[in-house]
Design goal:
Elements (H helix, E strand, L loop, with lengths): L1 E6 L8 H9 L3 E4 L4 E6 L3 H8 L10 E5 L10 H11 L3
Antiparallel strand pairs: 1-3, 1-4, 2-3
């Protein structure tokens, strides 16, 4: 599966609870700070975007970005660091 970063301005969502429900239904998801999620799915970035975009106003700034390579993050929770490291850089 591919990992994606989803960055959302929830203030622009027409139905924020439904958006969160859709994201949580992806095979693996981790809520990051504020309105950022890291998810794993077999969908393409375009498919994830197409699934979420109907619930946002036009020009909402919805960003879907594939994550690969190295990981540097100042997270205090070691379990989160391990989760991300295993998925982003394989270990």
């Amino acid at each position: 599966m591919t990992a994606y970063l989803i960055d959302i301005d929830m203030a622009r969502a027409t139905n924020p609870e439904l958006v969160l429900d859709i994201i949580r239904r992806l095979p693996t998801s981790f809520p990051g700070p504020k309105s950022t999620w890291i998810v794993e799915t077999d969908q393409s970035a375009q498919q994830v975007f197409d699934t979420l975009s109907p619930y946002f106003a036009e020009n909402s700034g919805l960003l879907i970005c594939e994550i690969c390579g190295s990981l540097v993050w100042d997270a205090s929770d070691e379990s989160i660091k391990r989760w991300l490291s295993a998925r982003i850089i394989g270990g």
